[in-house]
Amino acid sequence: MRQAIKVRNISKSINGKMILHDISFDIYEGEIVGLVGPNGAGKSTLLKVMTGLYNYDSGDIYYFDYNLKNDFEKAMSIIGTIIEEPALYKNLSGKNNLKIFKTMFKGVDDNTISEIVKIVEMEKYLGKKFKTYSLGMKERLAIATSLINKPKILILDEPTNGLDPLGVKNIMSILKNMKDTTIIISSHMLKEINDICNKVIFINKGRIVNIKNKELTSSKKNIKFEVDDYSKAKLLLKNYLVNDELEVYESDEVISKINKALMLNDINVYRIYEDNNTLENEFFDMVK
Predict the structure, then answer these.
(1) For residues 129 and 93, is the Cβ–Cβ distance under 8 A?
(2) What is the arithmetic mean of pLDDT over 184-206?
(3) Dihedral of CA 274/276/282/288: which sign?
């Protein structure tokens, strides 16, 4: 499998404050990779660096054989991106917006536009003005503009931000069906990231803290306890809890010790059950 993205030792400071610390990772052709972290972790800064919106202090970024710093135009010619709100003309129709984007690239014909419109399922709405679109339709058109140059690599920063559950599902379905495109996507939608990504990169405080391949499973489990004395149990387990619902994310050995501690403190355990959203569990573990 070819290496599509190679990030090596990227550091970035803004106004004297270090935002990214020695970031390195690899993404291979055809992979869909999630970039996950709490607010302020450095996700958007990293993606802006990767798309040329920010310069970087040190390191290298490669897209296939192109070095972003030395071969900027060639590197950007194979990338499609949505960073922040897409810059589209509100008073123009979706079709006319796409025509404008079409002029920015060579060799883009009407057949290409038609193919892209089918991918994002916007055929019925192209004649309507952009300002009349729902948020989900605006995001679909934004994805269409990012595909105009038939990119090998797609870089997306929070493309489902503000969408309702159906809108999120539609956008994620579109991305999952782009079989020949390498995608890196930043999102807080952990369940959806878990569903569509082959790999997840965890970032916190400007550093990569974990890179997890989907097929690799954690030895830890997310366990919920139902007890007769919630307040007493919450106080006893305060160093283990990931939220206010008596949930812990620990190994079998630690869970057994927790259960024993509850019983020794005269707390009756009515029920113990497991939540299998492992990505969410690991996110809690990281920020904890």
Answers:
(1) yes
(2) 89
(3) negative
Residue 156 has pLDDT above 50, yes or no: yes
Q: Which one-letter amino acid corresponds to residue 218?
A: S
Q: Please give the Cα distance from 279 to 160 (Å, whole number).
A: 18
Question: How many other CB atoms are there within 10 angstroms of residue 58's CB atom?
Answer: 12
Mean pLDDT for the stretch of residues 104-129: 86
The beta strands (E) that lie in the chain are given as 3-14, 17-28, 32-36, 58-63, 66-67, 79-82, 153-157, 182-186, 199-204, 207-213, 221-227, 247-250, 269-275
The pTM score is 0.74
User: Is residue 68 over pLDDT 90?
Assistant: yes
Q: Which two tokens stand for residue 28?
A: 């291979």
Q: Which domains are seen in the chain, by residue range?
A: 3-213 (3.40.50.300), 221-287 (no CATH)
Candidate from 6-15, 164-173, 178-187, 262-271 with smallest mean pLDDT: 164-173
Cα torsion angle, 275, 280, 286, 288, sign = negative
